[in-house]
Write a structure and sequence with these properties.
47% of the residues are buried. The protein has 13 helices and 18 strands. It is α/β, with parallel strands linked by helices. The chain folds into three domains: 47 residues, no CATH class; 253 residues, Aspartate Aminotransferase, domain 2, CATH 3.40.640.10; 69 residues, no CATH class. The longest helix is centred in the C-terminal third of the chain and has 24 residues. The chain binds pyridoxal-5'-phosphate (PLP).
Length: 435
Amino acid sequence: MSIAQKLYDRAKKVMPGGVCSSTRYINALGRPFYIARGAGSKVYDYDGREYIDMNCSHGAALLGHGHPAVTEALVKAAELGCICSAETEHQIELAEKLCRMIPCMEKVRFCTSGSEATMHMIRACRGFTGRDKILRLEGHFHGYHEMIYIGGQPPMDKLRENRSRPYIESAGIPEILRDLIVTAPFNDLDAIKEVIDSNRNQIATLILEPVNYNSGGIKPDPGYLEALRKITADNGIILFFDEIQSSFKKSVGGAQQDFGVVPDVCTIGKSLGGGVPLSAFGGKSEIMDMYKPFGTVQHSGTFNAHLTQILPGLAFLGEIEKPYFFAHLATLENRLHKGLDRITRDLGVPVMFPHHGSRFNLVMGLGEEPRRYSDLEKHDQSHAFEFYRRSAELGVYYHDYGKGSPGHSGYSIQHTEADIDKILEFAEKVLKEIY
Ligand SMILES: Cc1ncc(COP(=O)(O)O)c(C=O)c1O
């Protein structure tokens, strides 16, 4: 029996599903992928086998594994006494830098996970507008909490119903919260206008992923974000870009910089802590000033802005400000996608890898790039599982998210052009085998 199987047998006895996070169970393997350690662009399993890491901690490990700047920051935090539940000069420095880098950020607060960030930002949107409803887009994901884990990624056979009766995505979320969610498809302005018209003066915020990495890597149609900017402003609705995934993947300022559309508020996270848990939410001062102690909206917590998060956050920003950083990510992006395009064209297979910056998706079985969640009905999940499983055998770790919609993958600043060439060689071999 493999070491991984032995670990899983132990884990199942003491943790539900044998995992600490439900999506860490990998369907293609029938167990989680156990990682003993990571270094640079590689991870190693408990048998000492090396894999090129194309998951990169769901996007958090943009600096790769064991980056010296992050290690140094963690040591410094320990040496300073792991100060917790207190203000220091370091949070101010991080806030100042982010407010300079992220176009919409005039003020910012910190928390640990992306889910927490969207929860707190939604609360301020409601406090500011005095409205309760949230307008969200199909296929977009904003975390697992009660306020938003409704109507985002319904099973395809529930999609039609989702428009009038948003699908509750987990047992345990009260039915009554469904009434606070209204949904529309991505890249469909008429649908947005219709929903706003029929919920006049009730919608606090329109929340979306500017690039829908969580469902196929769908990009906004040209002019779409600009139109959302205008419609929301005209209707007193706060425009909220959830950039937990898109932040820092292509530029310092996130998708709002890439597409030149500035929302009222945003959330950023995943890679912000250099692999250490750190997220942030921020935006216009008038909205952020809703938070206590001088406003009326609560956001507080013992571990908020812990030094073990803030110092790695500063180390991360220090790295991405270096001129080589986004130039190297762009080199990898060009090399990878030029290669993948050639392979799929030569093989004539219905496979595409929609991408924006250093993250991409694997979409199989469609004739053209998806524009909205419903297009993914034809996504061929069983071929995708097979692609991930065979890639793992060759020494590449892609994460299979186990849902109906395609998963996302990506690389780090420590990945090399040689890593990308290996990825291309293996992708060609696997696609030839499975088609
Ligand atoms: C766009 C977006 N928002 C929110 C979240 C939730 O973040 P976390 O997993 O850190 O709670 C994610 C995580 O994948 C995300 O991609």
